[in-house]
Amino acid sequence: MHRWRNLIVAGVFAASACPASPIYKWTDPTGVVHYADHPAPGARKIELNVDVVPAVHTPSSPTAPANNAAPLPYDHFAIDSPTREQSFFSEAVPVHLTMQPPLRASDDLQWTLNGRALDAYADQVSFALPALPRGAYSLVATAIDRNSGATLNSATVAFYVHRPSILNPHHHPR
After folding, report:
1. Cβ burial 150-159 (10 Å sphere, 16+ → b, else e)
2. Rounded to whole angstroms, how far apart are CA atoms 51 and 37?
3. What does DSSP assign to residue 94?
4. What is the mean pLDDT of the chain?
5. Is the dihedral of CA 35, 38, 44, 49 positive or negative?
6. Are the C-beta atoms of 25 and 41 separated by less than 8 Å?
7. What mean pLDDT do residues 30-50 have?
8. d(Cα 126, Cα 128) in Å, to the nearest integer?
9. Residue 7 CB coordination number (10 Å)
10. Do the beta carbons of residue 151 and residue 65 sit within 8 Å?
11. Beta bridge partners of 79
12. Res 172: pLDDT
């Protein structure tokens, strides 16, 4: 029994010492993002720095201001919807931010989806993202004090949009 354990431990160390093979990412004409270990036309190489360390779960919390301004006075600032790693199969993705106290008159609220500002939803704590294409998304809310420039970011929420396929046996036409 000990011999197998030693072989397993040796294998884990050997695998972590080997350089990672390259990973390529591309989007096909239908908007589907692909990842593979071989390049495809239009693919870009993704560098991964992977260290083998024990996983430690730490609860998400808002990010403190990056500058020297006083922190914004929100006791709670979190995206409630979508939830972390949630999958959507419907037409719209409901978005909701809980913040205590409510947004101050001197603050702006900005939303960022996959690194791009959602200007149409500025200063809204609740809205729906209509018919996003299939894929993985990350959403962040940011409160910005117009006077001092201090910012407060919510934890990033990753979610996924799936679309029915006629090839899927679970597809039910409407």
Report:
1. bbbbbbebeb
2. 19
3. E
4. 77
5. positive
6. no
7. 75
8. 7
9. 10
10. yes
11. 97
12. 52
Residue 118, judged by CB atoms within 10 A of its CB (0-12, 13-18, 19+), counts as: middle
The two structure tokens encoding residue 49: 């720095």
Q: Which homologous superfamily is 76-161 in?
A: Immunoglobulins (2.60.40.10)
Query: Which residue type is seen at 101?
Result: P
Range 108-115 contact pairs with CB under 8 angstroms and sequence separation of 24 or more? 108/143, 108/144, 108/146, 109/141, 109/142, 109/143, 109/144, 110/141, 110/142, 110/144, 111/139, 111/140, 111/141, 111/142, 112/139, 112/140, 112/141, 112/142, 113/137, 113/138, 113/139, 114/138
Distance in angstroms (rounded) separating the CA atoms of residues 94 and 88: 10
Q: Which token pair is 6? A: 């030693």
Residue 86 C-beta-side C-alpha neighbours within 13 Å: 15
Q: In the prediction, which pLDDT does 162 show?
A: 85
Q: Are 10 and 17 spatial neighbours (Cβ–Cβ below 8 Å)? A: no
Residue spans in the chain of domains classed CATH 2.60.40.10: 76-161
